């Protein structure tokens, strides 16, 4: 409560996602701060005016709704959620309560050292100007109010298997995926059949080139000087300009697009269609990375160097084969993913504001790790994304990479979520039909030269991305002379 007025400074509603929240009550639809995961449950965060809440009767609120009262001024809201990781990994870690308490301790005491702009950041305790407030907390998720300074670095403080997402600073309109937006994906799926030319094109993806590319991005080759691709690290800028040059060599037009001060930019590359059309397909990955707590090394060979080199392998093959498209094609490497999908949120909003005709979006995040005891796999999202787009990718996989065992994964919430939230048809490809099992997940040991880093699986999934792109965009090859 605010001592002067007796009112809390803000009210926050955390409630299971229900589209009728937006259709029946306009004061709530103007209070939407996005959907977030708590295990398999999707929750909406709303920040209504107290008067808006008054118009709600006890019956209209779901029994599972939580109402939090912020007693301090809110600078930045942060959602925290436990990632879906395999038991073989979580059994090594402490209990949630212990882990979360230790995390809150790091927020309040903060004996933290780092390079660059971060070392000016000083946090005080929970009662100081820079403190935090816990607004909602269960065993799988939490909503915090933190200072701007803490928000910038919170991804480096959260427990390893937790993910932090910064909420928007003002309400966002709820944008469902309209059925008309799915029309093109539906058409492509209905007509999908084996194309021997596509099979030969996607088979041309080069593993040795992917191996060289990943070793540059991780710094394993000793040539790039990259230590970390964390969004604030100098290595992320090295990676961004290197990626821009490599994609441009393949005939794309690329832009480095900054989205927030201090963050490395998004790398947005485009092949214009050979016909005059608004239709655009977008394939993406995130090139930023996260390392172990307290370490400056963040090589991110799997998360998400693997998705990034898959995109690059597609671009290099587009060049080798001289492919032209009937749609516009964008290949995008995002930054700010580890801080809460920030780069992709900015770009998805930009495309929504421009009324872009995005007919398909596929994010690749973690493609290369395979437990040596398991077959090669392709994991697809069961919660976030458009089911028809996910089905299209699954059916393409069965045709062009039949060796992959395809199934759903609960590992969620990569950059495709940003596009799904803006009403675009989107899905994700992942390395496992189950939770995360990579022992080097969010670890400074995430290198490409290790047991389980499987270039054959990486190529098999890149083939699925590329074949989906070719079927969806339409293509032509240079005529033979
Ligand atoms: C996708 O593949 C499944 C399994 O082979 C098949 O049953 C289904 O008909 C396919 N969907 C379409 C639209 O072709
Ligand atoms: C890809 O195709 C080129 C010719 O266009 C060929 O020289 C090269 O060996 C092929 N690579 C693979 C991995 O198939
Ligand atoms: C492409 O089509 C649009 C809309 O039909 C038209 O305004 C524009 O001039 C065309 N551009 C070119 C290069 O033909
Ligand atoms: C978007 O592109 C599709 C082709 O992929 C086309 O059928 C549709 O008319 C386009 N929509 C608009 C609004 O231009
Ligand atoms: Zn990732």
TrEMBL record:
- Name what cofactor the protein needs: Zn(2+)
In the record, what lineage is assigned to the organism producing the protein?
Eukaryota, Fungi, Dikarya, Basidiomycota, Agaricomycotina
Q: Which PANTHER family match?
A: METALLOPEPTIDASE M28 FAMILY MEMBER, PEPTIDASE M28 DOMAIN-CONTAINING PROTEIN
Source organism:
Lyophyllum shimeji (Hon-shimeji)
Q: Where is the signal peptide?
A: 1-22
Instruction: Drop me one GO molecular function for this one.
Output: metalloexopeptidase activity
What GO biological process terms are annotated to this protein in UniProt? proteolysis
Which family is it part of?
Belongs to the peptidase M28 family. M28B subfamily.
Q: Which InterPro entries match?
A: M28_fam, Peptidase_M28
Q: Which residues form the Peptidase M28 domain?
A: 266-456
In Swiss-Prot or TrEMBL terms, this protein is called Peptide hydrolase
